[in-house]
Request: fold
Amino acid sequence: MPTRPLLRLPSPNVVAAPPGHAGPTPIRLPSKGRQGEKFGPTLDRLHSVLSREGAAAIELRDDPSSLAPERVVVFEIAGTVEDFLNALVRVDGFELMAEYETAFAPDDDFAVKDKRKATKGQDRSDKRVPGRLYLAMPDVQALKELVRLWEIWRAGGNLGKGRAPFAHLFGQLHALRPWGPQDRIPAETVAFWREESERFPDRPVRTEVELWYRGNPSRREEASQTVRTLVGESGGQVVHEAVIPEIAYHGMLIDIPSGEVQNLLSQQPVKLALADGVMFLRPQSLMLDPQDVEAAEDESVAERTGQPAAAQPVAALLDGVPVPAHALLVNRLTLDDPDDLQSRTLVSGRVHGTAMASLIVHGDCNEPNQPLSRPLYVRPVMILGEDGQERTESDRLVIDTIYRAVVRMKGSEGQEATAPTVFLINLSMGDTRRPFAGLVSPLARLLDFLSYRYNVLFLVSGGNVTDALVIPDYEQWTAFEAADPKDRERAVVAAINAAKQERTMLSPAESLNALTIGGQHRDNVSARLGAQFAVDPFENERLPNVSSGLGLGYRRMVKPELYFPAGREHLRFQSAGDGLVVKVCPTRRLYGLNAAAPDPTGQGKLDYMALSGGTSSATALATRAGHKIFDAMMDSEAGSLLADTAPDFYAVVVKALLVHGARWDATDDILLKSIFGPADLHRFIERGENCSRFIGFGVADVGVAMECSANRATLVGAGTIAAEAAHGYRIPLPACLERVTDPRSLTVTVAWFSPIKSGHQRYRSLRLEADALYPPPVALGVERKGAPQPADATVKRGSVFHEQYFGTAAVPFVDDGHLVLRVWCKEDAGSSGGELVRYGIAVTIESENALPIYDQIQQRLRVRPQA
Reply:
């Protein structure tokens, strides 16, 4: 029983929101004459063709490189154009398809202007020019209007009411072209096709098609039939199709004949690659588990048997089929398998689902943990493949599988919920064929939508990158083995940094609303079997594992946010020559977290255990931590002051508390910044981003999030807020911190689920931040830590605001000894349509010395001012 439970924040008042942010980045633009030289020929030809009667539109469509009706046009601009989207929709016949951020190298026409005093106004050759891609599908009349506006602008005329943004568009235009094969077929698709063709030369290659989502159902059906016809004419087939309007998704799973794949690889014209309705051709999304474990019987599991006290689950696992009769899992799972995947998965092959369920329920069995108080809801979404690996079904789109699973769990119109009380959903899987490369994947968009719609917190694994790693600082394995641990650690971190573009997170880890979990280099294995053939790369157990997928996320938000133990990964020799090449060892009996396992002999024994590692296992521990935090919140018998929290706020409050105890260690910061740079201390935002890519907000400390101490008080609250509104929380300060120099800290965390706008470059509809009406240096004698924590700009990009302050200034308290903390909401992706956001907030005041902070704040909260 905690002696000092979490405190409740006083109810907030409505206060004024702060003004908006600074203006856009200054960019040097080309002259009107230069723009006429560059784009005049394209638009003049378009004007010439559209001016003719008859088959003009057909002539344009026959040329894949031309702007044509019903073909997506790419407007690439430098900077931003205020209100362009509003101007575009005013032109009849233009349908906006998407908007994305982009950046390109400076050239003779465009460059970022320097804002620094000594070189103000000069071109920045070291900075890419920020811009946007506007993607729109026009009909004939829309193209005619585009040409008309261009000619008026070039002649210096007035474009007319509501058309002014087109003048800025033309002036800032960097590229104008149709969406073509080079856009539809990303590099990873080409690599996938080539690899599959080499492995199975005569076998069709299963590929995902992402179609442009058309809001009009008849247009959507027309696009579907066109693609189906093209696939059939090529000798292929459509395996599965799914439409999810809420995230503007329309996708197909198709088989492309080997001959057509070869034509695509050789860049020969293929109708499917030229189809105007196709947005992307991608490798089939496939979530799989390649874990290589060695299970063994363990008689001690009998000591952990029993059953949960409460009946209703609050946590769910979407994963492989578990062994529900295992001694650690019997009577502890609510198994829901409407697709009957159990019948298609041998019990001896149910490795991943069994391990994840065990870790959520019991934690690492190498530690003396108590099992969860509630059953775990399990929805299998993986089966055992022919190659012995667990994977999602090959004849269905993964996004549809996850969508159906969550809607079934939470319910919808005409469908009763199978687990209405669940608000934590564990997704310990990543799409190995879709590393994050700048755009939010459809699956991540789905998680973001479901989070907001159902008030559920997804905990998603960052993904494991098992590719070999080149360590340039060493040539021989023997030298690497014999190296000083600190030198070896530095060399490995530097090698990971050099390869960061190839070691990114796996979809859907970029999800805005989910918490993404990385793998911390930590476990409790005592006897490491096989260690004589491997090397532990890190002495510091707070560092991420070598295989843990790296951030940042979309628009450089902090991802992964948190790190949980994932085993002390070891490295093994692969080759030497131009640098030492190493790979991560299989888990086996070498490292990892001790969890339940199926009987590999097929005899049906139910007491097997195995070590499980990677970000999957770390995510399971994070889900368990969220459950434990919730248990502490609801335990009124143990003195919890938060037990009356409304269910609609469970997910955001737990999300805030999971992040609230996370922090960087000072040694992490020194090591990483010295390697990642840049050396210029004035570029602190870039330095902070580089570190955030590697360690997010840091290693989670769940104990801090669950209870307070004599010198630490954590106050928790929740609310609902709309755009342009702000809430003010009056937090009573402890008298022991007034006019003293004792070191003290302030930590503020706000977490929410934002509605999203699919296809909008900002994507996040609403952002929340927190600040103090009286600056922290004045109110409490603290200032924002420059390090160790992510830069202020980086913190504000996701769906968690988490900042730490520290100071020793002896200040007199203001405002009757209160810290007035303001939580405010702003629109981020245009009009939010009046949508409300639920948020959770946690505030901690702590001293490094033995001061009665908790008791004094608690006492002031009890004393209500008289009216």
